[in-house]
Each structure stands twice: as C-alpha cells, then as structure tokens.
Protein: DUF1398 domain-containing protein
Organism: Flavobacterium hiemivividum
Amino acid sequence: MFTLEQIKLAHDKVQTGSDFPIYIQDLINLGVKGYDTHVNDGRVSYYGNKEYAVSTDKKYNLLRIAPMANKERFIEFLVMHQGGQSDYFTFCQQAAQSGIANWRIDIIEMTCTYYDTAGDAIIIEKIPA
C-alpha cells in the first residue's frame, strides 16, 4: 500500500496545474484509486484497494467558502490554473471564492468533480491521459 511520504514525493514534482497529468500517473503507479481535497483547509484523503485510506493534516489556515457557487468564475480560474498561471494555494483560494468546497479525483473513472457546500456537483471534467 502507498504512504503519505510516497504521495508527497509525487506531489513535490507539481509546480503548476499543467503538471497534473504526470502527478496522476505517479499516483496510479502507487496504487491510489482516488482522493478528496477539502478546500477549506487543504486536507486530502487518498484511498486505494480494500478501503485502504490515508489522510494529510490541514495545509493552511481556514478559508471561507462562498455560500453560493459561481460556476462561470470558477471555470475561468480553473482554465488559468490548468494553463500554469497559478500555484496550488492560489487555486484553492479562488475555488473558495467561487463556492467550491471540495473536489474528488476518481482515478478509475479519470474524472475530477468539484462540489459546492451543499455537496452538489458543479463541474465534472475528464482528466487528460
């Protein structure tokens, strides 16, 4: 099974959103099936086979999540981030401003789903291979 240290080594290679596909491939190689990111404090829960899971501690002070999702604005931030125009923390701040409470990466389905505070899916996108 994978460890947080192995995941950290893979994550340390990521400088911008354009590095994301390489990170996903590294996670696949480790046996990670998916993970949930909590925007309010940066905690991430990784899961694998047979209900195996590991979670990080919070990564930053609490961010206020806007109560209403602004899908159009979030898409603008997402496109900028994926184009390498923002770092991870800036993207998390922008997600919070846009009402995104968390996102789930499903490595089996190769999707990333962004959720609002009510748990409703705002955007579902395919992860590039």
Q: What stands out?
A: The chain has one domain: 4-126.
